[in-house]
Amino acid sequence: MGVTIVQQFPIVENRTGPQTIEFLTKRITALGAVQQGQFLVDCETYTSVPALGQQRTVHVLHNSEHPASVFSILDNGTKTITLVADQLFDLLMLKMTSIYTSKKQTRLEAKGPRFELGDFLVKLGTVSMGQNFKGVLVEVEYRPCMVPGNCWELLREFMQGFLGTCVPNTTPQYFQNRLNDMYQPTDTIHQYLEHFSMFRKTSGVLTYS
Q1: Among positive and negative, which fits the CA dihedral 30, 112, 126, 75?
Q2: What angle do CA 136, 20, 119 make, to 5 degrees?
Q3: Which pLDDT tens digit goes with each residue over 119-175?
Q4: 135, 11 in Cβ contact below 8 A?
Q5: b/e per residue, 149-175, with b = 16+ CB within 10 A?
Q6: Hey, how many other C-beta atoms are within 10 angstroms of the C-beta on 113?
Q7: How many Å apart are CA 99 and CA 105, to the nearest integer?
Q8: CB count in 10 Å sphere of residue 41
């Protein structure tokens, strides 16, 4: 895998989620991209019971690109701890219901078509929480590079080519202090969690006229 950017794509007023995915599909295939299956990233959030005192939150995420792994992020309000485990971690969380509980109808997922274009991998994700559509996320990976600072300009130019002005000219906030670090699968997970957290806070779908 290489460096990955996860970008929210604004929903134009009077355009639905499926219509937005179709619009982006036409744009990326016009560049020569070929669809290679589907993808799914999901997130379930658990909170500690009051008896534990200071509240702790555990986010459990799955990524279809890493089917044998379960990603968990523990947040105690002051710092986060990231753990990569196997699928037995899901069973462990089910046995910890006396300590951590999952809020109903808060599971988020991004799923949709997956495209390959030369050294780039592009995923167009419809984000939903329960039965509610929340928005669209676009994931772009440049596979030959492992250091964000070495390929950000190339990624930015490629993304602006089919996403337009919603892609900023400046480096995303997540990478501000990580430009020279080796990119890891957990970096993709953290980006999805940031976007999922923003979607949870909004009561509807953010649209642009």
Answers
A1: negative
A2: 70
A3: 999 999 999 998 889 999 999 999 999 999 999 999 999 999 999 888 888 888 899
A4: yes
A5: eebbeebbebbeebbeeebeeebbeeb
A6: 21
A7: 19
A8: 28
Residue 70: HSE in the Cβ half-sphere, 13 Å Cα cutoff: 14
- Write the single-letter amino acid at 200: R
Chain Cα centroid distance, residue 114: 14
Helices (H), 47-181: 88-94, 148-163
Cβ atoms of 122 and 28 within 8 Å: the answer is yes
CA distance 29 to 197: 30
Answer yes or no: are the C-beta atoms of 55 and 101 closer than 8 Å: no
For residue 33, the 8-state DSSP code is: -
CA separation for the pair 27, 47 (Å, rounded): 40
